[in-house]
Amino acid sequence: MPRKKETLTLSVPPGTKNKLDAIAARLGIKWGERPSPSGLVSAIADSSLYVGPYFSFSREEIEALQQAIRALIDSGQPTLAKSVITLLLNYAHLEAPLRQELIKTASHPLDGWRIQVDQYRDRQQPFRVLYANSQGKILEFTVRYAEVQFHEKRDYLQIWCDETEDNLDLPELKHNRCLRLDRIQGILEATGEWRGSFDSILVQLRFTNDMVAAYESKAEDIRNEILASDPQKGVSQQRIVTRKVVNPFWLIREVLRYGPDCQIISPPEIRDLLKSEIQTTLQHYL
User: Fold this and answer.
1) What phi and psi, each to the nearest 5 degrees, are found at residue 128?
2) Rounded to an integer, what distance in angstroms lies between the CA atom of residue 159 and that of residue 148?
């Protein structure tokens, strides 16, 4: 015998049925090939469809979830990243720019390149990277050494590569490049030798005032000493750090955060890079 059904008559404003049809179609609730508003109401009634208020996330919680999404993508877990994105899109009240950014992220393939990079590194096997730069141009690099490094809330792929033509970095560091993992378009095996290290230069930093005690040593520091003050010569206590640097970009961003309490002592080329950065920024305020 056919199952008995209850009849519910609804009075709704003009256009509401079309909206209900659209929601049912988006959720895959259909009667045959047609969207089913009746099925939509039934799903709400038996709690298989959540229609409560949006979750209210603080700014800090949103930033934490965004960082979690980036970490999952970078670590080669795109399915979990999409699950977090879907949760936010379906249940969180988001400002339009963030919502559009998440939709854009979810609509692109989220291949986990980190896994392939680790495999090549373990085998000490050179590989080629197809990479989309910030302007969308596709570049190709032949990688002979690589490390995944954490900078400012996300992982990056630091590489030593053959290609140097368009690299405006210092001559000693032209083979070093830093790539965003989420802009990698493909990875292929390459022939040749694995280097085993990056090119690097030594940079000396001077920390003064509160940074003498507050500075936290980095793995790249090869010398770190505190010099006592000399009141007779008018010299205050200072910390001198010598660091091995493979990418001046991240060094300069770090030094700028320290403000006047950190100076680049040497080499002159890095001092000039920092000076140019400060002068360019200053022009915006004149």
Assistant:
1) -105, 140
2) 9
